[in-house]
Amino acid sequence: MINRKKISFDVTVYDAFNELNDAGQTLMSAAVKARQRAYAPYSSFNVGASVLMDNGEIIEGNNQENASYPSGLCAERVAIFYAGAKYPGMSIRAIAITAASLNHEVSEPAAPCGNCRQAISEYEFRQGEPIRILLMGETGSVIECNSLADLLPLGFNSSFLN
Ligand code: THU
């Protein structure tokens, strides 16, 4: 028997940063500050990520590029790995991501790359609770996703290894 199945997900779209609630604005502001400290001399594409931990602390990261390009790392992984390193086992409530280019205006919400989705999914799967994701460019609307799993349907996780 063949079944057709549709995989879809809901997001919340805010017209602009100032439509976010206070907690959302605080988290996204931290990502913007992190973005402004990005080290991206090769792409001129600055990304900031902020991770809201279960104890209320916000951990920030930004992209760190390298003259040997593949040695660099995206903002999201810098932030989430730092969160994992500082607070092993602590739940992560949300991540905010923002991007800005020195060459053009990023007015669409910045989408995390596939590697970062996979990296974040590891923590979400382990904690068994969803991580909310806020996405923003430099200007324009903000998208809120309810979980990382929504952004990585049919994802790979440790259950396959058992
Ligand atoms: N980048 C991120 O930091 N996060 C993403 O999800 C996409 C891309 C960085 C990597 C590189 O430093 C620059 O943006 C251009 O790809």
Describe this structure in words.
Its cofactor is Zn(2+). One of its GO terms (biological process) is nucleobase-containing small molecule metabolic process. It is an enzyme of class 3 (hydrolase). Belongs to the cytidine and deoxycytidylate deaminase family. This enzyme scavenges exogenous and endogenous cytidine and 2'-deoxycytidine for UMP synthesis. The chain is of the alpha+beta class and about 160 residues long. The chain has a single domain, classed as Cytidine Deaminase, domain 2 (3-Layer(aba) Sandwich), CATH 3.40.140. Helix content is about 25%, strand content about 25%. It has four helices and six strands, in the order βαββαβαββα. It has helices at about 20-35, 75-85, 115-125, 150, and strands at about 10-15, 45-55, 60, 90-100, 130-135, 140-145. The protein has a six-stranded mixed sheet with strand order 1-6-5-4-2-3. β2 and β3 (about 60) form a beta hairpin. It is globular. The mean pLDDT is about 100. Tetrahydrodeoxyuridine (THU) binds near residues 40, 65 and 72.
